[in-house]
Design brief:
By secondary structure, the chain is α/β, with parallel strands linked by helices. The protein contains 3 helices and 5 strands; from the N terminus they run H-E-E-E-H-E-H-E.
């Protein structure tokens, strides 16, 4: 009995590229199919609607840097603004300060400070009027 001699030759090397491709495809599949974020409900409480208060806007016009001003058409000097001048209803109003084009910025800052000391809670700057409107307060008729 004669056995065929086993031919021992070069062994073919197994290519690892397809194996690595399969491993990465499996990794990608499991990463996309799993969830890393825990989903759940969030308790959110929202504000309920309430009747709004009427927002009163009072216009303050500063005519010059000497302190001559008008509050809703009532002429006065800023030295007349004293602590406690405004009633409690007037304190909650929004004071919109407007000025002539010739009024320096320091005069506006001084007026805002005096309004705050007098009890105004909300003070806002409206801007500078154009030269043709310098003789009238903001919102006045022409």
């Amino acid at each position: 009995m004669q056995l065929n001699k086993l031919v021992v030759g070069k062994r073919r090397a197994i290519s690892l590229t397809p194996l690595i491709d399969v491993v990465f495809i499996l990794l990608l599949f499991f990463m996309l199919s799993s969830s890393f974020i825990r989903w759940g409900a969030i308790d959110a409480s929202f504000a309920k609607a309430a009747p709004s208060k009427e927002n009163v806007i009072r216009r303050v016009y500063l005519a010059d840097s000497t302190g001559q001003l008008t509050i809703d058409g009532l002429a006065m000097h800023w030295s007349a603004l004293s602590k406690g001048l405004f009633a409690s209803a007037a304190r909650d109003a929004t004071y919109v300060v407007d000025a002539a084009a010739t009024v320096p910025a320091q005069a506006l800052v001084t007026l805002v400070d005096k309004l705050k000391v007098a009890g105004a809670r909300k003070v806002s700057l409206a801007g500078v009027l154009s030269a043709r409107n310098d003789t009238q307060p903001a919102g006045g008729s022409q």
